[in-house]
Amino acid sequence: MQTPASPPSRPPLNTILLIGGLGIAQLIGWGSLVHIFSSFITPMNAEFGWTSAQMTGALTVGLFIGDLASIPVGKWIDRYGGHVILTLGATLGAFLLATWSLIDALWHLYVIWSVMGLAIATTLGTNAATIVTANLTDYRRGLMLLGLVTGLASSVIIPLSSLLIVRFGWREALVIMAFVQFIGCASICALVLRGTVGSRTRPQGVKAHRDEQSLLKIVMRRQAFWSLSFAFAIHWFVTSFSSVHLLPMLLERNMSLDSALSIVALGGPMVLISRFLLLFFDLNTSARRTGRVVFPILCLSFLVLVWSNTSGYWGAVAFAVAYGLSNGVVLIVRQTAIAEIFGIRGYGEISGAITTVSILPRTLSPLAISMLHGWLGGYQPVAWILTGLITLSTVAFYIAAADKGPKI
């Protein structure tokens, strides 16, 4: 018999329909609302003369607001499910993409991306993982499949948006992407998420338990919460390096542009390969055990990065392979470890809180690494610092993984 303190019974959903539809919606959402920003920097610079720093500041503001909203959004999905909020968020995102096509001043871009932060928070983030953990008994397999699909977002949407810009112009491309966002994300969410529940959805007629409001507070009293938060905050800080600073670092080592670009391009395929391997060979392994393997490999990859300063191209290839394989699995570990250590009740709110802890490390990472590069006179000492930080992150994960406390 279900009690008010127990998780809601899970409806008999079609797993393939839920994962397939949600995966496509997230692929399009991540691509349209986040990844395509870089495609529009060059044409907006050509038309308005705005610098890259001026424009990417708007993206930073949007991501910051999205992270701030992660706790209340997660709490909403825990209580009411994701059908309404993801559908409305995805629709808002489509509207903002279309509005973006009308701008003629820099402050317009900042206003749009400030609101876009809310669209990102309500559509993306850890929302898909929250829905999967609350509605599928085999949520681990579901999260792996979801990660496999959404990992293609940048590989699919960035080339598409670039092609549209060349063919039609950047304003028209945004209108087309708004249509893609509405049909491929908002409409799919409206269809496939109907009937889903949250991890704290109460059966009709059951009153709230007196402890329901304090789940996050209970979890925050445990060392595992802070260890896990620290591990992933540092992970965000360190891995943000690869998206901004890896190419300049390789060029600083006198590597040719073509060779450096080939190293950077290895990241995406390695992430997909790692998730395929995880799906087929690691289904029955706990998140704790998987994390204890991939975090040390991530440390090893940065040691290889340090060593590759003298080993040349193939040393950098070894870094890219080890880094891509391990980093591709860390996201899955993050999503499954939360449910495994704390339970599925309140998953969205707890996951949102861990995301909130990571706000400053993630948003300040590119600037902080640039400052370190200037102060220390090059990327080699920066690589040593990143190696030390990811080692601390690994230790923190091991501490969290050792927690044997009860699930809430």
Give the overall shape, derived from the CA principal axes. Answer: globular
Q: CATH superfamily assignment of the largest domain?
A: MFS general substrate transporter like domains
Number of DSSP-assigned strands: 0
Poorly predicted residue ranges: 1-12
Output the radius of gyration: 21 Å
Which labels suit this protein?
single chain, 408 residues, mainly alpha, Growth Hormone, Chain: A, 2 domains, 78% helix, disordered N terminus
Task: Outline the structure in words.
The chain has 408 residues and is an all-alpha fold. 78% of the residues lie in helices and 0% in strands. The chain has helices spanning 15-33, 41-48, 52-68, 70-80, 83-100, 106-123, 127-135, 139-150, 153-168, 170-192, 215-220, 223-244, 246-252, 257-265, 267-281, 287-311, 313-342, 347-357, 359-376, 379-401. The protein is globular. The two termini are 18 Å apart.
SSE map:
Blueprint: H1 15-33, H2 41-48, H3 52-68, H4 70-80, H5 83-100, H6 106-123, H7 127-135, H8 139-150, H9 153-168, H10 170-192, H11 215-220, H12 223-244, H13 246-252, H14 257-265, H15 267-281, H16 287-311, H17 313-342, H18 347-357, H19 359-376, H20 379-401
Summarize this structure briefly:
The chain has 20 helices and no strands. The longest helix is centred in the last third of the chain and has 30 residues, at 313-342. It has helices spanning 15-33, 41-48, 52-68, 70-80, 83-100, 106-123, 127-135, 139-150, 153-168, 170-192, 215-220, 223-244, 246-252, 257-265, 267-281, 287-311, 313-342, 347-357, 359-376, 379-401.
